[in-house]
Amino acid sequence: MAYASRIISHSKKLRNAPNLLRHEQALLVRCFSFSGQPSVGKRDEIRRFNCHGYVTSEGDGVTKSFITKSLFGAPQGRDFSTTAVKGGNSIAGLGLNKLSVSQVLLRRGFSSSGLPPHQEIGMPSLSPTMTEGNIARWLKKEGEKVSPGEVLCEVETDKATVEMECMEEGYLAKIVRGDGAKEIKVGEVIAITVEEEEDISKFKDYTPLAPDASSAADTGPSVSTPPQKEVAKEPVASPEPKVSKPSEASAEDRVFASPLARNLAEENKVSLSSIKGTGPDGRIVKADIEDYLASRSKEAPAKAKHAAPADVDYTDIPHSQIRKVTASRLLFAKQTIPHYYLTVDSCVDNLMELRGQLNALQEASGGKRISVNDLVLKAAALALRKVPQCNSSWTDECIRQFHNVNINVAVQTEKGLFTPVIRDADKKGLSTIADEVKQLAQKAKDGGLKPADYEGGTFTVSNLGGPFGIKQFCAIINPPQSGILAIGSAEKRVVPSSGPEQYKFASFMSATLSCDHRVIDGAVGAEWLKAFKGYIENPESMLL
C-alpha cells in the first residue's frame, strides 16, 4: 500500500480519478511496469472485467472503487487490476452496435530501453463463447490522430460485426494486425496508440511480445524493445558435457521381441519401441506387429478423405467465425447432452381463424401482421410457465430453474444461424412479440445483433415448416438450455366429423420437442407438449 501511495501522489491524472470515474460505459485494464513510472491518459473509465475479458454489469446505482491492492501486491513483474464503476446500462447494449476502445483490453506499456508511454489495444471479448475474432477492416491509418467517438476498426465476432470506437485522444502509432486478420485470440494485441505525435516513428519496427513470453518474464515491460545495434563479440567457448546417447539400434535391442516379430518389423520399417507387446513379460510377438500395421492402414484412408480426387473440381469456402462457433457448440451438445424426442400433432384450424381476426385488427390500426410463428412462440412461453421444469438447465451442482421465460428464435442468414432472444415472452402480447421478432431477424441478417439481443435465452424454437415446408424434424439442443422445439409445416387431413357429414378436412401441425434427459424426464416433456398443444388448439386461452 506504501507503493500505491507513491504512485498516486506522483500522478496528477490519478488524483483526478474520482471525477473521471463519473463517465459511463467504459473499461480499462492497466498494466504498470515496475521498470518505469505509470502514465494514465484522459478519460480513464473503468468497468469490471473478468478473467476471460468479458464485461459484466453490476446493476444500477453508482459505486466508486479506487485502485485495488492487487495492482501493487506483487513485488515482481507486473500485474493487472480492475476497478469498477456501476451505473447506466450494461455492456450488453453497446449503443449502436459499437464497441469503445476503453471496453477492450488496454495495457499501458513502459520500457526502460527508451520507448515512450504507449497503449496496447487487445482483441476484445464480446460474449462468453468468444475466444477469438477477426479484423474486418481498419478505418484509421497508422499515424492518424484519433479522437473520442471515432471508429478505429470493425471487429468480426462469433455473432456480429462490431465497430470499435476510440474513447481517448491520441495517435494510432502501429497496426499490429491488419485488414482481414483472422483467428486473433482474445487479449492479443492488435494496435498501439501513443499520446504524442512525435512518438509515432519510434514504433515503426515495434513487435509485441507473444503472450507466453510476456507472462514468463519476471520483470520488465510487456512489450518488445526497439532494435538495437549489434555489438560483435567473440564467442566464448564453453565446454559441453559429453553425454553418451544410446543408438537407435541399441534401443531396439533392449526391446524384447520374438525373431519373427523383429523380421516383420524390419520388412515394414516399424520401430519396435513404438509397439506394446502382448506376449509373456511384455514380449512383442508377430500378432502385435500385424495389429499395428492394420491400424496404420486404417488411419491412412481416414486422412485421405480430406483430400479431393485429382479429377474433381471444387472450391474451399473458409469457415466464418459464427460457423466455427456454431459447429463447436452443436458438436458439444450432441456429444454431452442425452437427447430424446417427443412429437405431437396439433390441429391449427382455430389458430388460423384467430390469426385472421387479429391481422384484420392490426391492418386497421396500422400494426404489423402476426405470423403463425408468433403464435407458436406465445404458446411455447405459456407452456414453459405452466411446466417450469422445462425452463431449466443442467449444472454440475444442481438443476437451475429460471424464473424468466426468454425464448431464442432460430434465424437463418447468409452468414450462418443466429438465435436472437425474446425476453419475458410469456408476459408480452402477440403484437409486441411480432414486432420484436421482425426487428431482431432483420438485425441478424444485417449482422447488427448486439450481445443483449442473443444472450440469456432459456428455451429455443426453430421453425422449418412455414418457410421451407418441412413436415417434421428433430433439432439439437442449444446449451446450456434443456429443450428446443422444432416446428413443422401444417397439412390437411381427413378426420371424423361431429356434424351431419361423416368426415371433414382439418389442418395439423407437427411439433417435436428435444429434451435433455438429465433435466426433463419423459413424463415432464409429455406434460409440456400437452400444455403446448392445448394453447395451439384453443388459442383464445392465450389471450386470457
From TrEMBL:
Its EC number is 2.3.1.12. It holds the Pfam family E3_binding. GO terms for cellular component: mitochondrion; pyruvate dehydrogenase complex. PROSITE patterns: BIOTINYL_LIPOYL, LIPOYL, PSBD. Residues 203-254 are annotated as: Disordered. It catalyses: N(6)-[(R)-dihydrolipoyl]-L-lysyl-[protein] + acetyl-CoA = N(6)-[(R)-S(8)-acetyldihydrolipoyl]-L-lysyl-[protein] + CoA. SUPFAM superfamilies: CoA-dependent acyltransferases (SSF52777), Peripheral subunit-binding domain of 2-oxo acid dehydrogenase complex (SSF47005), Single hybrid motif (SSF51230). The keyword Electron transport does not apply. InterPro entries: 2-oxoA_DH_lipoyl-BS, 2-oxoacid_DH_actylTfrase, Biotin_lipoyl, CAT-like_dom_sf, E2/Pdx1, E3-bd_dom_sf, LAT1, PSBD. Its main location: mitochondrion. Its cofactor is (R)-lipoate. Binds 1 lipoyl cofactor covalently. Keywords: Acyltransferase, Lipoyl, Transferase, Transit peptide. The keyword Acyltransferase applies. Residues 118-194 form the Lipoyl-binding domain. One of its GO terms (biological process) is pyruvate decarboxylation to acetyl-CoA. Residues 256-293 form the Peripheral subunit-binding (PSBD) domain. Belongs to the 2-oxoacid dehydrogenase family. The pyruvate dehydrogenase complex catalyzes the overall conversion of pyruvate to acetyl-CoA and CO(2). This is Acetyltransferase component of pyruvate dehydrogenase complex.
